Design the sequence.
């Protein structure tokens, strides 16, 4: 089994001969829930159950990481969004918001202070769960997650509405991101006090974010979140990110996780001088749908390329098999 210290050294740029396996994204599966009795949706809202479920990848497969939370709705809910709690095999989702509008992005309301924002709701639940893991399992590398200000802004106002607003009324969209950012800065600060790493989910996919708008709407706010953290920070972005890859890698984070749409050798060549790379295991086609031997082969390939950590390239699908997760955790033994 790999160790917390090995992961820390890899993020510092002192990786050994092979890359440690880890999970920095969503970790929960139905099998893990059955194994510990802490299931969704309750484990998304209760700190003790959240912590217990997050420990299952270590207990069942041998990972040296524990990650909370299991969804990206915590921040939006704290701002007032209505949440569909999901079910055992499905994560929570944003179901509605008092700020949705069919016509235009609304004016920014008066939000609670940053300190109050970070101290209540599920923000407090996640911090409590992370603190519990760190206190009771110091041998594990504890990871917390935070969604970037741009994503939270469009979840609160409606993604289509917000993207249209970026074209028709960018100042109003900018006002939303500017209002959300200091609350998330405070949240990241508190998360970092209770974990080894804060993984920031940043929207950089060219399918949603026009590349010409990336620096202003995503990069600048994420830099502020990274500056607020006291420990390691990593960035994860789903989708096709090749048009902004160098920008995404230059925000001051310690590690970067992106989905491999171009060849991993190209990604490594382009940005490994700026940041440590995490990845190697596409979540759906390989981790969920693939076979253990294919997972092992891919993990070894990315390790040989020079990736710092071998991780799923997106959240672990809830129906992923134990055999496939065990293959990732133990790939260096084969």
Sequence:
């Amino acid at each position: 089994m790999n160790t917390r210290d090995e992961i820390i050294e890899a993020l510092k740029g002192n990786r050994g001969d092979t890359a440690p396996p880890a999970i920095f994204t969503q970790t929960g599966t139905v099998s893990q829930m059955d194994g510990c009795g802490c299931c969704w949706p309750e484990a998304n809202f209760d700190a003790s159950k959240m912590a217990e479920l997050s420990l299952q990848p270590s207990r069942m497969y041998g990972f040296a990481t524990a990650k909370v939370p299991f969804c990206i709705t915590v921040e939006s809910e704290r701002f007032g969004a209505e949440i569909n709690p999901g079910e055992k095999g499905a994560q929570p989702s944003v179901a509605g918001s008092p700020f949705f509008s069919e016509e235009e992005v609304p004016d920014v309301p008066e939000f609670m202070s940053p300190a109050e924002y970070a101290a209540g709701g599920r923000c407090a639940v996640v911090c409590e769960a992370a603190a519990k893991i760190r206190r009771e399992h110091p041998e594990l590398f504890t990871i917390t997650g935070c969604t970037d200000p741009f994503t939270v802004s469009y979840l609160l106002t409606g993604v289509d509405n917000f993207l249209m607003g970026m074209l028709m009324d960018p100042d109003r969209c900018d006002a939303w991101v500017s209002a959300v950012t200091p609350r998330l800065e405070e949240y990241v600060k508190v998360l970092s006090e209770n974990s080894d790493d804060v993984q920031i989910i940043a929207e950089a996919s060219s399918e949603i974010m026009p590349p010409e708008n990336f620096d202003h709407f995503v990069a600048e706010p994420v830099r502020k979140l990274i500056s607020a953290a006291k420990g390691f920070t990593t960035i994860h972005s789903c989708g096709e990110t090749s048009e902004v890859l160098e920008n995404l890698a230059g925000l001051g984070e310690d590690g970067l996780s992106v989905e491999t749409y171009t060849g991993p050798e190209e990604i490594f060549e382009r940005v490994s001088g700026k940041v440590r790379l995490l990845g190697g295991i596409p979540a759906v086609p390989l981790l969920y749908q693939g076979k253990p031997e294919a997972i092992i082969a891919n993990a070894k390939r990315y390790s040989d390329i020079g990736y710092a950590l071998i991780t799923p390239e997106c959240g672990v699908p809830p129906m992923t098999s134990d055999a496939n997760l065990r293959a990732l955790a133990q790939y260096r033994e084969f």
About this structure: The first strand starts at residue 65 and ends at 68. The chain has 16 helices and nine strands. The radius of gyration is 19 Å. The chain has one domain: 4-333.
